[in-house]
Amino acid sequence: MANIAAAAQMSAGLMYRYFENKSAIVRAIVERQLQDGRAQIEQLHSSADFATRHPGRH
User: Fold this and answer.
1) C-beta of residue 15 within 8 angstroms of C-beta of residue 8
2) On the CB side of 22, how many CA atoms lie within 13 Å of its CA?
3) pTM to 2 decimals?
4) Which three-class secondary structure state does DSSP give residue 21?
5) Non-local CB neighbours of 12 within 8 Å, separated by 6+ positions
6) Within the chain, how many helices (H) and strands (E) appear?
7) Domains contained in the chain, number
8) pLDDT digits (tens, 9 = 90+) for 8-48
9) Are 5 and 15 in contact (CB under 8 A)?
């Protein structure tokens, strides 16, 4: 939790003001990473470079 608090630039106690418990914090982090990953994949699929490299996959 100390590492997460440091990365968020806030105290661990303050994080619990926004999240119910440690599991909720970890779940939010994982969900954010999944969203970011999906967005990056979507950018690859919609880019001209992907279409050029992989004809028939767009």
Assistant:
1) yes
2) 5
3) 0.67
4) coil
5) 1, 2, 4, 5
6) 4, 0
7) 1
8) 899 989 999 999 999 999 999 999 999 999 999 888 877 76
9) yes
d(C-alpha 11, C-alpha 4), whole Å:
9
- Inside any domain, residue 26: yes
Q: In degrees to the nearest 10, what's the CA dihedral of 50, 51, 56, 58? A: 80
* Token pair 């994080």: residue: 15
Whether residue 14 is contained in a domain is answered as no
Contacts by residues 10-14 (CB-CB < 8 Å, ≥ 24 positions apart): none
Domain extent, residue 56, equals 20-58
